[in-house]
Design goal:
The complex is a heterodimer. Chain A is an alpha/beta fold. In chain A, 46% of the residues lie in helices and 13% in strands. Chain A contains 17 helices and 14 strands. Classes of the chains: A alpha/beta, B alpha/beta.
């Protein structure tokens, strides 16, 4: 047994987190910043933070992840990191020549109280930021929130780059939240089909799913451009996908530049995608084309075709709040029973939302924000499930408890596909179903007695 | 085969290459980097000097990690029955969770915590009001849940800044429990200039709190400790297999698949065999001073190197039966190695490699490439010190800078009752005369050819330049470097995590490595980077489509 020391009996833990269901803010900020065209994320802290985030993102994407660090040593930690940051800005613009440096803090620089906006002013006054280049920053203390919070904070800093001209650009801002590059691509495909002009930010498609061509580009073609971010203040509205990931940025644009926003769930599964498409229709005043209706019909079709394999199956879920809310709703909508749901990210609203979504399911649901995977495992030991959905670390639980398991979320370190095949939208819903059904039916095949082994399923 | 059509190594003047590596830097950066890039002269003991173990320049994309990574990640991570509790915000513990591929088996006692990740997950109020209470509570909860033999606590950056006294907390908890050794490591990420500082801090605390705790005599005639072997990809399992076959008893491994009791009994061994000089030489030195156990440098990466290391160990014990047994084992193991080697060599001979990894690995793996007829044209360490490049004779001349002075040096004296020189001065002298060198490591530079380029703390920009200018057939470093190199069309082998491969140590490991490198440098995929229309972009004059 891999997790041989996990007891079934749950004892209250006040101070000890075991097998976390979250990580820290800066990695989220780094991921978001990679979605700006020509941007080098910069970690203002000691080297290890940057090395760990780059390693984790690289393992997840199997792509180069460039980011720099202020390389704090004891001196910088005592006297402040301004000198390191100024030196870094100069070196980065000289050697790597990015359009933008997106700086995020760490628990180290936050604890000593480094003031990034002030350091940026100093860099400007010393002429360290070349003409036409940008330094943006986000405060991302690791001791608050989670990687999701850090993502949200950097996306908000991106929204703060908006410079409205006063003339509307006829576009809709879409803030997709922490989804895969393939998901961002899919959102662009859908909005393209509908005929809505959009500014999508961040946009990691093309950056973290690039080709092998014999050429290495530190700054690949993809990403939201600075011009687009500046223009976001002229958009006719903003759709923020996911309260945790995207709402702050949308509200910033609303409050500061009167760009009206609505906060939706991430478009995973049938109903959340329905709401997303409908919101697009209303905000942009367009008709939904037949292609989209067709894709929706295909998803409904597969649900009805395969309903017998899904009905009543119990599921345990672990991941990030926005994703879990949409996924829980999807599972309930196809008559599955998500009964154990954990996120490591704090937020009472999460538990409330999940309770609401599952209230008519007819069985007790365990849900916890700021929980961990040790607790999830204990819940599963107490009440077993038919399916487990979560990131790579779930494989230890799945093997010990012999549960079919779909990898979905962050990080996925041991399988491929998430970079290339979306799970958002109706097409993404089909892929989610394909994955779920594949696991459930493989299990049926594996466990069926010879006489009950089915050819046609 | 694609490699046949590949451009051959461009012979360029190394001085020119060096100049090009630093030409884009601002002047201050260029001056500093120039001292960390050396054109090798391949001279024993009088090689030109290289600056190492100095700060990375802010903003320059480095391969390096932090002190915490060296302490918790590298040294203590591979222990299996110690609950390794990270005191800090969640990230540090999360990122070090199973990512180094240290393999463990639960052993007869069934204790194995390696698949778990423990953290105090410090929150804002802990940073403001102090985290000591939360730490004590977390230790209590870990004890109540698991009743481990030992709990180790690791400090992350904010812990040092807010002044949590983790050593007092752990001492109190140890006293409270009575049957669980609890201790702490002040391995905040900002200490030192790289992972290396963390190794030193880990060495000190393991020596201070664990080594010597169990005096019970372990069975075995030829008892050694294997220091600096982390069982990545199962390397340690292969070395254990060979030791067992030879009749050599490994009392403790620092720290692959290790247990608390192995550390506690390390002082009962009669020889320390040091694999990774950089990360563990401190423990070797301290074990000698306090208990009288001599140390020799070994290397089990490479079949010939493995044979050589086994012979050194046998020579030390000087037992005829052991010497004969070792020869017998080598004779048994080598044919399988040679079969694969000679087969693979037809496809690898003359190819070139670059290696930028660790503080010893770049040197160790050179052996394996040599065995395949491949030439290492450029190499360096991520966190090595000057002695790892130039040999231990430079130790007295290394000036301690402020960063190094921050790392504690344990004052160790001979143990009053347990100090026992394993060999008399006369015996040691005779062994030295016979060619067995104690406390000696000659470093990477003397082993590299003249005109090769040695680079300390290589960074992203220089890596790309080196590949562009020298066109190696394979590049070795870590996960962060992997895909930018491969985008250039050069295969990249991770020598930290082995890309899910291994073991590469010992005889069987060598075979695995030969096959792996053969696979990489001869893979068809590197021929697919351009589509046919990209290779022949001009349009054909005639339409012959019938």
């Amino acid at each position: 047994m891999l997790l041989r020391h996990t007891p079934t009996e749950i004892s209250e833990r006040k101070a000890l987190t075991i097998n976390p269901a979250k990580t820290c803010q800066p990695i989220g900020a780094m991921y978001a910043a990679l979605g700006i065209h020509g941007c080098l994320p910069h970690s203002h802290g000691s080297q290890g933070c940057c090395a760990y985030h780059r390693s984790t993102l690289t393992r997840h994407y199997k792509e180069p992840v460039s980011a720099s660090t202020s390389s704090f040593t004891e001196g910088a930690s005592v006297f402040g990191g301004q000198a390191n940051m100024l030196q870094a800005i100069n070196n980065i613009f000289t050697v790597y020549e990015p359009e933008v440096i997106a700086v995020h803090t760490t628990c180290l620089s936050e604890t000593i109280g480094d003031d990034l906006p002030q350091i940026k002013k100093k860099a400007e006054s010393e002429g360290k930021i070349p003409e036409g280049k940008y330094v943006i920053s986000a405060s991302t203390p690791s001791y608050a929130g989670s990687h999701v919070t850090g993502f949200s904070n950097m996306v908000k800093s991106m929204a703060m780059m908006a410079e409205p001209t006063g003339k509307k650009n006829g576009k809709v801002n879409i803030i997709p939240g922490w989804v895969e590059p393939a998901d961002m691509e899919e959102i662009k495909r859908m909005t393209g089909l509908i005929g809505v002009k959009t500014i999508l930010f961040p946009d990691t498609s093309g950056i973290l799913n690039g080709p092998l061509s014999g050429e290495y580009k530190m700054f690949p073609e993809g990403g939201t451009t600075v011009a687009e971010l500046q223009s976001a203040g002229d958009s006719i509205g903003t759709l923020a996908l996911g309260e945790w990931c995207s709402a702050d940025a949308a509200r910033e644009l609303d409050a500061k530049h009167k760009v009206p926003c609505s906060v939706l769930d991430m478009p995973f599964g049938l109903m959340a995608t329905d709401r997303f498409i409908d919101a697009l229709r209303i905000i942009a005043g367009v008709n939904i084309p037949e292609e989209i209706v067709h894709e929706r019909g295909q998803l409904v079709d597969m649900i009805s075709d395969m309903h017998q394999y899904l009905y009543g199956k119990k599921v345990a879920l672990v991941g990030d709040p926005d994703q879990l809310i949409a996924m829980t709703e999807f599972l309930v909508s196809i008559d599955m029973k998500p009964i154990h749901i954990v996120t490591g990210t704090p937020g009472k609203k999460f538990e409330k939302r999940i309770k609401e979504i599952t209230k008519d399911m007819g069985c007790e649901v365990n849900v916890k924000a700021k929980g961990d995977m040790f607790l999830l495992h204990q819940w599963i030991k107490k009440e077993p499930v038919d399916l487990l959905v979560g990131n790579t670390y779930c494989k230890y639980i799945a093997r010990d408890e012999d549960i079919p398991y779909v990898r979905w979320g962050f990080p996925i370190l041991d399988r491929q596909g998430h970079q290339y095949f979306p799970t958002v939208g109706y097409k993404g819903g089909l892929r989610l179903l394909e994955k779920i059904l594949g696991e459930l039916m493989d299990r049926q095949d594996r466990d069926a007695p010879e006489e009950k082994f089915e050819l046609v399923m | 085969m694609t490699t046949a059509t590949k451009k051959k190594m461009v012979q360029r003047d190394p001085a020119e290459i060096k100049a090009e590596l630093i030409s884009k830097y601002p002047p201050k950066v260029a001056r500093k980097r120039a001292k960390q890039i050396m054109i090798n002269e391949a001279l024993q003991n009088e090689t030109p000097s290289l600056t190492a173990n100095v700060r990375t320049i802010p903003g320059i994309i480095t391969m390096r990690g932090c002190t915490y990574a060296g302490c918790k990640g590298v040294i203590m991570g591979p222990t299996r029955d110690i609950v390794n509790l990270v005191h800090g915000p969640i990230g540090c513990s999360f990122y070090a969770w199973l990512t180094r591929r240290n393999q463990t088996d639960a052993g007869p006692d069934g204790e194995n915590f390696i698949n778990y990740c423990f953290s105090t997950d410090m929150q804002e109020q802990d940073i403001i009001f102090g985290g000591e209470k939360k730490l004590a509570q977390a230790i209590q909860e870990a004890y109540d849940l698991f009743h481990p033999k030992s709990i180790a606590v690791f400090a992350t950056c904010p812990v040092g800044l807010i002044g949590d006294d983790i050593h007092t907390v752990t001492r109190n908890m140890k006293e409270k429990f009575g049957d669980c050794n609890v201790y702490a490591f002040s391995c905040e990420g900002y200490k030192g200039v790289s992972q290396s500082a963390g190794h030193h801090i880990a060495n000190n605390q393991v020596f201070r709190h664990i080594v010597g705790e169990n005096d019970e005599e372990k069975p075995g005639k030829f008892k050694i400790n294997l220091l600096g072997e982390y069982n990545i990809g199962g390397d340690g399992f292969e070395i254990d297999r060979i030791f067992e076959k030879c009749g050599i008893t490994c009392i403790s491994t620092f720290s692959g698949n290790s247990t608390y009791d192995q550390f506690a009994s390390a002082h009962t061994a009669d020889l320390n065999a040091v694999m990774c000089h950089r990360s563990i030489n401190y423990v070797a030195d301290m074990l000698e001073t306090k208990y009288g156990i001599p140390w020799i440098k070994v290397n089990f990466i490479g079949a010939d190197a493995t044979a050589k290391s086994l012979r050194k160990i046998a020579e030390y014990f000087g037992d005829k039966k052991l010497i004969a047994k070792v020869e017998k084992v080598i004779a048994e193991e080598m044919p399988a190695v040679e079969t694969v080697r000679s087969e693979v060599r037809t496809r690898t001979e003359g190819k070139t490699a670059m290696m930028f990894v660790g503080g010893s690995r770049a040197h160790h793996y050179k052996e394996l490439f040599n065995e395949m007829g491949m030439k290492t044209i450029s190499a360096g360490y991520e966190f090595g010190h000057q002695d790892d490049y130039e040999g231990r004779q430079v130790l007295p001349n290394i000036k301690l800078d402020a960063d190094s002075r921050n790392i504690e040096e344990l004052e160790v004296e001979a143990d009053e009752t347990r100090y026992k020189p394993r060999k008399s001065d006369k015996e040691m002298e005779a062994l030295e005369k016979g060619g067995l060198k104690f406390k000696e490591y000659a470093g990477l530079a003397p082993d590299m050819d003249k005109g090769t380029i040695i680079v300390d703390d290589l960074n992203q920009y220089e890596a790309e330049k080196l590949v562009e200018l020298m066109k190696p057939d394979i590049f070795c470093a870590g996960i962060k470097e992997k895909y930018s190199i491969q985008k250039l069309g050069v295969p990249m082998k991770q020598l930290h995590s082995y890309d899910s491969g291994g073991p590469y140590a010992g005889f069987r490991g060598a075979v695995n490595f030969y096959r792996e490198i053969d696979r990489l440098v001869n893979s068809r995929v590197w021929g697919y980077m351009k589509a046919p229309w990209q290779m022949n972009p001009q349009l054909s004059a005639s339409y012959n489509w019938e």
